[in-house]
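Please check this:
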Amino acid sequence: MQILTVFIAVYALYASQASAGCYDGGAKWGNKDDAVKKLTDACSSELVGNYAPGGDRKACRPGLGGGSYEFEIRNTNVYSIYISQDACVADLRIWIDNCTYGGKTGDMGDLGIFKRGDPNSGNCGR
């Protein structure tokens, strides 16, 4: 019973963090399978690796049928961190799965890591 209680508490914390940072309007994700595919691609190249304190990386991918998906990770800690591909996908997929218009963590980030996933109606590099 205690394991179930802990699981529910962790899940509630995870879900509340996602919904707390959801955007209220703007472009929608559209085809979520495509968004996850583009996120996985971005996490396997630009977004994976070591982040120095204050280090920030962004990636943009064209969306299926127009628009674009922007992803960002920033280290707000005073020490370096490593973001693996799996952690990148898991952390940024929250916004695709739980937020119609994308979202972000607070400015100081979640555990010192700022994360943003944002669908846009315009193209990358606009």
In short: The chain is about 35% helix and 25% strand. Strands lie at 49-51, 56-62, 68-75, 81-83, 103-104, 113-120. Residues 53 and 79 are 5 Å apart (CA to CA). The radius of gyration is 15 Å.
